[in-house]
Amino acid sequence: MDNIVVLDFGSQYSNLICRRIRDINVYCELLPFNTSIKELQQIRPNGIIFSGGPASVYFNDSPKPDKEIFELGIPILGICYGHQLIIDHFGGKVKKTSTREYGRADLIIDNKGDLFSTIDSKIKCWMSHGDAAENLPEGFEILGHTENSFSAAIANQEKRLYGIQFHPEVVHTENGSEILKNFSQKICRAKPSWNMESFIESTIEAIQQRVGNEKVLCAVSGGIDSTTVAALFDKAIGKNLKCVFVNHGLLREDEEVLVTGLFKDYLQSEVIYVNAEKQFLQKLKGVCNPEIKRSVIGEEFAKVFMDVVKKNGHFQWLAQGTLYPDVIESGVSKGPASAIKTHHNVGGMPKWLNLKTIEPLRTLYKDEVKRVAKLLGVPNEFLQRHPFPGPGLAVRIIGEVTPEKIRIARHASKIVEDELNAAGLYHKVWQAYALVGDDRAVGVLGDQRIYGHIATIKIVESIDAMTADWTRLPYEIIGKMSDRITNEVEDVSWVTYAVSSKPPATIEPQ
Ligand code: XMP
């Protein structure tokens, strides 16, 4: 399939470049800056984009691609640091500027070429750099300038090498997507063949080829990712798929009934229900550290799967719903993005499970998964539920996980969801729940003094969970939630509202 490769030099926007290219229906992958020439030759990209990055090209230890990349005859677009890399490689000079250019600037286009052929002669662009070209290498011409950058856009059109000092991937650059489209489709001639219909078709075919007649076990949680994986395998291999839904005792209220019921109606494959509440809660006794909680839960999941494998015949494969941002955020992509939290579905299951892992969504972003799910006819109840972490309420309980704290987090969260639904706001927010820890505060209930728990309501808005803003919920709704929680949830005396965004906070407290 036609595709573009983005080489990641450490910019916070690298992922975004990839997103933008996919939005114009060209398949795009983000790879580490030092990806070997051999690997690139295997991928055969129609074009390569060098991302921006925080380094300066004139230092010896700054990240550089293999020099041979310039000899491959593949069009290259360098963005910001990538632009400076091209100038430096071909013998131009890059140096620190006296005035750092940051924010919006007017880009005057002097020569439209193919890159700007569909763009106005003057656009707003987004700059963020402290280095700039002092002089250009031979063979390069100026395509555009700003007040502070005489060479904000350059090209050697014959060799199809382009460099832009600004960031076309951020929304502040006018026609940014159009510039990326011109590069991918006009200059690189990549056909816009990436769409979710073709993804489904090719993935089903790939699953059938890879799995053959072997049996696949798929753990489903009712979340959109694992449901989509199950739906793909259901279509691809039918009866050779078995799903397993594990109740670890850390689910939302009535979740097990809802999810197993929905699956029964939707899938032709069997869904095995395992109630492992006691086993999980026993293992979590005395565990307070969030990362240890995650690893205990991950390990118990694996043990449950092992049991299912033993009781239900021979499985060779375990299907998982790992997504592209999970791969990048966990640092598995080898790129500069580093691990933040261990999301237990990345990195595979323990070897002793003896199952081969298959992850058909590994290349997709969340909104692409949602589109796939819709096309596969996944019921709306699955599509519209808020995301819920694999370790469940355990990461919404600060300190030790106890039956009392589970009861409080579960019941109070149900009230938060109910009130949001009643106000017609459930679908407008990304996640909403109540968390609980060990802090207590005095209250008076009837004539009795109680020293109850403090429940904290957390509601956030987000597009992709990478960043999130706390929701400015009307006071009356917060008040109603608070009244109901203190009245209806036994042993809660106070309710607070979390007003921390991500960053610096994360969405889950643990
Ligand atoms: P954070 O807390 O990192 O969460 O801001 C980002 C998104 O990921 C979900 N999350 C998890 N999902 N296993 C999961 O499957 C986990 O351990 C986990 N931790 C957080 C969280 O609910 C949010 O949507």
Folded structure, characterized:
With 510 residues, the chain is of the alpha/beta class. It folds into three domains: 3-187, Rossmann fold (3-Layer(aba) Sandwich); 196-383, Rossmann fold, CATH 3.40.50.620; 397-497, GMP Synthetase, Chain A, domain 3 (2-Layer Sandwich). It is 32% helix and 24% strand. The chain contains 14 helices and 18 strands. The chain has helices at residues 14-23, 37-43, 81-89, 176-187, 196-211, 224-237, 255-266, 277-284, 290-311, 324-329, 366-375, 380-384, 403-422, 475-488, and strands at residues 3-8, 27-32, 47-50, 76-79, 93-109, 122-135, 141-145, 153-156, 161-164, 216-219, 241-247, 270-275, 317-319, 356-358, 431-445, 448-461, 469-470, 492-497. The protein has a nine-stranded mixed beta sheet, with helices on both faces. Strands 12-11-10-13-14 form a five-stranded parallel beta sheet, with helices on both faces. Strands 15, 16, 17 and 18 form a four-stranded mixed beta sheet that branches. The longest helix has 22 residues, at 290-311. The radius of gyration is 26 Å and the shape is globular. The two termini are 41 Å apart. Bound molecules: xanthosine-5'-monophosphate (XMP). Residues 294, 341, 343-345, 387, 389-391, 395, 431, 465, 502, 506-508 line the site of xanthosine-5'-monophosphate.
